[in-house]
Amino acid sequence: MGEQSFLAHSHGRNASYAERIVGGLAGALDHALEAETFASRRGLLQALDPRTKLACLMALAVTAVSVHSLIVLVALLAFVCVVALGSRVPLRRLWKQVGLPVFLFTGPIALPAIFLVAGPAIAHLPVLGWPISRTGLRSAAFLLLRAQTSAGLCLLLILTTPWPHVLKAMRFFRMPVVLVVILGMTHRYAFTLLETAHRMIEARQVRTLGRLSPRERRRLAGESAGVLFARALAMSTDIHQAMIARGYRGEVRLIESFRFRKRDASAFATCAVVVAGALVFGR
Amino acid sequence: MHIPDGYLSPSTCAVTYAAAAPFWFVAMRRVRRRMQGRAVPMLAMTSAFSFVVMMFNLPIPGGTTAHAVGMGLAAILLGPWAGLLAISVALMIQALFFGDGGITAFGANAFNMAIVGCFVAHVTYRLAAGNAASTALRRTVAAGLSGYVAINAAALSAAVEFGIQPMLFTAADGTPLYAPYSLAVAVPAMMAAHLTVAGAAEAIVTGGVVGYLQRSHPELLVGREDGSRRSPRALWAGLGALMVASPLGLLATGIAWGEWGTHDFADAGVREQIAGASGGIAPPGDVPTGLARIADLWQAPIPDYAPSFLHSESLGYVLSAIVGVGLVILTCALVSWFAARRAPTGAA
């Protein structure tokens, strides 16, 4: 997507324009399928109640953003790696979907801070002679570690919890029911639209000889988006009629069938200790 | 544009969540009232569409590529309130499911892209499109322009959020704890990218989709500006209340940063205030020559919001507010009158 994201950017520079769009769309679909596969495995986080996971991982993310110590941030990142291994999420995947994108996106933003942030110089860049400040280095490290830790926690939540369970857990924390339903439908139909876009662009790709000019590519993207919007609106009307046919009268109800067990209490206690420790030592 | 976690302090994140919450509340109420049962599938599909559109990378003149956010499209096709909800939902799925934008920074991202973006796009589109027919070329251009202005307004909002971090949140040794660049660096860096590449992407997608819909589904471009035909009575009441409340400004002490007059440089008390508000940097001993040269070029008719014939400061503030609002309304009326005279009545 051109920004920090869990999606791998695997399509090559030599790929055609259509191939690159198809690659991006396929990457999003693959991520969703892989998330479901990981969520169905037996592991540490998979065994917990989604409400416990949501509350603990959010508390840890807020803690990672709040602490003022690099050592504590490194410890939190190590904790994320340990939890990932316990949940049968390989560190290679964590690196591919979090580590690398954060370095590629935040790295170029953090790097100039080493030279631009005022502070005592601890070294000079060879050849150019730019001073590397201690405060600049620390500042860049804060940015990278915070982004890595928070994104790692978010990925663990998504890889170990089916999306409908995440939504039900949100409902438990008093998120408006209508918003939860919209989020669920958006997620479901985003993939329907992704498949539609995928087929549309692929169909165009197989009918195209040679390379499209930038003007033609812009036109292709604009028109594809227009077709998608028209289809999305038509689909929303169909869905609404289907909902009415099934008894929908504007009120939304969700079935909540989660069970809070002893292991959830243990997870809560562990999380509370980690958060409290990080906040005390990270001041 | 999607701010990841760690760039903004927890208090900035809390403030942006608080700033966005009333908009979400009002938007939800308005959309449910307007769409009734249709709100849920309609918003879900538009959010899904915004999400997919963000995956379309576009070739930008100059050799690079960028993706659009879809805020201009959402505002034009759904109106600003439904649009802000659709973009917020798309942003939440991006943040949670795809890691594009942070969880703690979700409030800031929604405030910048969904709220600022949609409202700026809506106002720009309405001003630029005027009363042109739904199939007029002017609407295509207005759509592109609204996307361009909206993404730049959102980027400016994000840049300000970045830029205030090192001013407010540093460690004892001066290390910036969050985004490390000051406003002087953050604003030009963000705006350079958005005024050129990202702005072009947003303009191309917004203009391109509206252009396509004009040819294939012109009915989708008619009557989607929710709330546009509402009575402005509540707006006038709010404006009146704000005018009456304007003397609250008298409670603030000191001088606004950067609004110093030439005489303030000679006042020891004011010099101390300036130094205190400028991170301990003392102002120059003499009035800067550029300031001294142009400071007296214009004499305000009501200096310091206090007309000389009024002895009450509070009354002076209220009168200044009435005069200011009157002048703004008069200017808008004149611009609208000229625009209406020049606007074509049919297709361009």
Structural class of chain B: mainly alpha
Question: What is the CATH C level class of the largest domain in chain B, in words?
Answer: Mainly Alpha
Oligomer, anyone? heterodimer
Low-confidence stretches of chain A: none
Shape of chain B: globular
Give a brief rundown of this model.
Chain A is mainly alpha-helical.
Description:
The complex is a heterodimer of chains A (283) and B (348). With 283 residues, chain A is an all-alpha fold. Chain A has a domain at 41-162 and 260-283. Chain A contains 10 helices and 2 strands, in the order αααααββααααα. Chain A has a two-stranded antiparallel sheet with strand order 1-2. In chain A, a hairpin with a 6-residue loop joins strand 1 and strand 2 (131-133). In chain A, helix 2 runs antiparallel to helix 6 and helix 7 runs antiparallel to helix 8. Chain B is mostly helical and 348 residues long. Chain B has 2 domains: 10-230, Arp2/3 complex 21 kDa subunit ARPC3; 236-342, no CATH class. Helices cover 62% and strands 2% of the residues of chain B. Chain B is built from 11 helices and 2 strands. Chain B has helices at residues 10-35, 39-53, 71-78, 80-98, 106-129, 137-168, 183-216, 233-244, 268-277, 289-294, 313-342; strands spanning 57-60, 64-67. Chain B has a two-stranded antiparallel ribbon. In chain B, strand 1 and strand 2 form a beta hairpin. The longest helix of chain B is centred in the middle third of the chain and has 34 residues, at 183-216. Chain B starts with 9 loop residues before the first helix and ends in a 6-residue tail after the last helix. Chains A and B meet through helix 1, helix 2, helix 4, helix 6 and helix 8 of A and helix 1, helix 2, strand 1, strand 2 and helix 4 of B. Chain B: Residues 236-340 form the PDGLE domain. Chain B: Keywords: Cell membrane, Membrane, Transmembrane, Transmembrane helix, Transport. Chain B: The chain crosses the membrane at residues 6-27, 39-60, 72-98, 110-128, 191-213, 234-257, 317-340. Chain B: It is a multi-pass membrane protein. Chain B: This is Cobalt transporter CbiM. Chain A: It comes from Pararhizobium mangrovi.
